Amino acid sequence: MRDFKEHAASPFLEKHVKEFDIPTVMLNLSKSSQKFIKYMLNRNLFSEEKMLIDIDDFLSVSGYKTKTSVFRILKELCQKDILARTKYRCIYWVNSGLIDKSLDK
Questions:
Q1: C-alpha distances in angstroms, 58 versus 32, 70, 91?
Q2: CB–CB of 99/18 below 8 Å?
Q3: Which pTM does this prediction carry?
Q4: What is the domain count for the chain?
């Protein structure tokens, strides 16, 4: 994760952000990242521009044993421009193309 730049403001505001099609996104991710996205959707974590990731909660729900697994997943999601790092280890920017617009109504 050290390879990824930390952002004080959302990096997704700096460039044109297209709305993501969740099923298409899921097909292009590893199984573990798919499981993480499902976890995040179930917890409504895509409703805000920033999210706090409870690693211990994810580990207990997913069955993964180590935090290393979670950091591999987060690395993949950052590589795919789904998430971006902040200076805090468990807080990430969410690409606004993934934010659930139906929650604004």
A1: 11, 8, 14
A2: no
A3: 0.75
A4: 1
The answer to whether residue 52 sits within a structural domain is yes
Q: Are strands 83-85 and 91-94 parallel, antiparallel or unpaired?
A: antiparallel
Distance CA 12, CA 94 (A): 8
Cα–Cα nearest to 31, from 66, 65, 68, 62: 62
- Is residue 77 in a domain? yes
Q: Phi and psi for 51 in degrees, rounded to 5?
A: -140, 150
CATH of the domain at 71: 1.10.10.10
25-47: pLDDT as tens digits:
788 999 999 999 889 888 887 77
> Whole-angstrom Cα distance, residue 48 to residue 17?
15
The length of the chain in residues reads 105
Paired with 30 in beta bridges are none
